[in-house]
């Protein structure tokens, strides 16, 4: 029963995330307005909007114009279900997961990190009972972002975006000083491995831009949980 309810919750929140990560970078407003087909812009009925089931029912095609629906929707919904089941019953971490997962999706798809989401993570870390003694936490956020800011300045914005710098204030505050060091090192190692694999597979060259935010977020969760 518990697993069933968590799955439902995950599907609903996952479909919310897939909607806001589509809307925020396109400046479409947070929740306002009914959802519409990405392709023909017709508005969708409730039946087209049931997480996962609509996708499976129509075999991945839209009812309005019979076009392929992006795989992002079911993937985001399934990942949300798994994340929530894994982190339950820690609702603080579940909320942090939903926030950082949204940032990760937007950064992969648009190579930007919306400020409002980074500030939400920051605000949330100030309220969280998990966060470290405030001074140590602030210092970790300051130090992590200073390190990334230095890289940003040295590479003239090519190796790092200002969005990464701002996000690192919030994530550093969550981890505290010691773990922050491990976290940033892990992010660079994962980023290096992924970039190396992409180069080897010729899916990228030395000029390809790869968002760094997703590596920061994945490394953050590895260090926080392990
Ligand atoms: Zn359509």
From TrEMBL:
Keyword Membrane: yes
Domain Prepilin peptidase A24 N-terminal: 8-88
Keyword Plastid among UniProt keywords: no
Molecular-function annotations in GO: aspartic-type endopeptidase activity
Bilayer topology term: Multi-pass membrane protein
Family: Belongs to the peptidase A24 family.
Name of the protein described by the UniProt record: Type 4 prepilin-like protein leader peptide-processing enzyme
Organism: Candidatus Woesebacteria bacterium GW2011_GWA2_33_28
């Amino acid at each position: 029963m518990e697993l069933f309810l968590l799955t439902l919750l995950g599907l609903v929140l996952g479909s919310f995330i897939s909607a806001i990560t589509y809307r925020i970078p396109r400046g479409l407003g947070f929740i306002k307005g009914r959802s519409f087909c990405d392709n023909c812009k017709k508005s969708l009925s409730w039946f087209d909007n049931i997480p996962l089931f609509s996708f499976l029912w129509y075999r991945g095609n839209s009812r309005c114009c019979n076009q392929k629906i992006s795989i992002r929707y079911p993937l985001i919904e399934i990942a949300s279900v798994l994340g929530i089941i894994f982190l339950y019953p820690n609702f603080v971490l579940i909320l942090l997961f939903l926030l950082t997962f949204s940032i990760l999706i937007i950064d992969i798809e648009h190579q930007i990190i919306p400020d409002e989401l980074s500030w939400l993570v920051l605000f949330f870390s100030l309220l969280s009972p998990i966060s470290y003694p405030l001074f140590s936490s602030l210092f970790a956020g300051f130090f992590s972002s200073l390190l990334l800011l230095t890289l940003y300045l040295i590479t003239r914005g090519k190796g790092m975006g200002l969005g990464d710098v701002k996000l690192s204030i919030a994530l550093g505050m969550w981890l505290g000083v010691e773990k922050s060091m491990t976290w940033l090192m892990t992010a660079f190692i994962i980023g290096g491995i992924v970039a190396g694999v992409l180069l080897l597979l010729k899916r990228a060259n030395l000029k390809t831009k790869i968002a760094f935010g997703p590596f920061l977020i994945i490394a953050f969760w590895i260090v926080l949980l392990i």
